[in-house]
Amino acid sequence: MKFFILLLSVILSMSILDAVAQLPVNLNFNIQSASTSEQVLTVSNRIDTASLPVKIIKGKMDGPVFSIVAGIHGYEYPPIMAVQQIMAEIDPDKLKGTLLIVPVANTTAFFGRTVFYNPADGKNLNRVFPGKPDGTISERLAHLITIQIITRSTVFLDVHAGDAGEDLTDFVCYYDNKNTPEQTDLARRLAEGTGFPLLVTYPFNLAKTEPAEYAFKHATQQGITALSMEAGKLGGVQQRSVQQIKTGIYNILRELDMYASAGKPVPRPVILNRQHYLKSPEKGIFYSDLKSGDTVSKGQKIGMISDVFGKTIADINAEQAGIILYKIGTPPVNKGETILCIGYHCTAK
């Protein structure tokens, strides 16, 4: 009897392994012109499984491949909701080129309502790019996005928002990669035309062999025109931010000559080419009357931290003048965490 139970276990295990081996991992990119295709790719490490939904919208005419990824952080909802509307609105007959859309990149975190991390392995998907084909489930998912989405892209857009504890003001951003001036110039032009009020540029000093960690930083490293949008905050769905993302995407499509849409004159954004990160000196409860988007001066009091009994243990002052891009928007704070990020402009000497 024990022999038959063992044999049955072996057969079942082999069946499971066969099923895992047959999971779709390659995107079928060869679809007819003026059509759409909805596909779900899957990766597994035989312990955990992750799915990657992808919608391909192929235009009537050839053109660039514009990839849009939402939901790398599953608790950041405005990008996910904006992309839902984009998928429903785009007419393939009016599209030039191909839209490659990932509506929810981290489905496990999304349906698990998990802040930042994938509950399957405890990893932040946006800290493991380019991923590993034989790593944890998040690393395998990052590798899948890298191979099937990023490498196919002419332009790559990663859309984020303020997570459950982040009070964030809307901005668009890109890396100032001096190694690929043509792609960087296009990223700048696209970012300037999105209609976002703030444009943040990050310095790029990553070696070719270093892991980029972030999805759109990896795309930049590979010589692909890449940018990111940040819109929405505190784990909610702000319709203004949803509309800001949609407007930005349509403006990029128009600038790439991929899709004609009614546009309004875009005001020149405020450009912030430096960032200052203010870290918490203590663990405790954070108090502040300021919010994201506020302008602060150097030395200005930002707030204070108390212990759990209400005793003040630290005053927090701004070490740099500028605009608060994002800050902790909920009371708990841990030592060493970023309390806020201040964006500012520095003229090169």
Automatic annotation (TrEMBL):
<dbReference type="GO" id="GO:0016788">
    <property type="term" value="F:hydrolase activity, acting on ester bonds"/>
</dbReference>
<dbReference type="InterPro" id="IPR043795">
    <property type="entry name" value="N-alpha-Ac-DABA-like"/>
</dbReference>
<dbReference type="GO" id="GO:0016811">
    <property type="term" value="F:hydrolase activity, acting on carbon-nitrogen (but not peptide) bonds, in linear amides"/>
</dbReference>
<dbReference type="InterPro" id="IPR053138">
    <property type="entry name" value="N-alpha-Ac-DABA_deacetylase"/>
</dbReference>
<keyword id="KW-0378">Hydrolase</keyword>
<feature type="domain" description="Succinylglutamate desuccinylase/Aspartoacylase catalytic">
    <location>
        <begin position="63"/>
        <end position="255"/>
    </location>
</feature>
<keyword id="KW-0479">Metal-binding</keyword>
<protein>
    <submittedName>
        <fullName>Succinylglutamate desuccinylase</fullName>
    </submittedName>
</protein>
<dbReference type="GO" id="GO:0046872">
    <property type="term" value="F:metal ion binding"/>
</dbReference>
<keyword id="KW-0862">Zinc</keyword>
<dbReference type="InterPro" id="IPR055438">
    <property type="entry name" value="AstE_AspA_cat"/>
</dbReference>
<dbReference type="Pfam" id="PF24827">
    <property type="entry name" value="AstE_AspA_cat"/>
</dbReference>
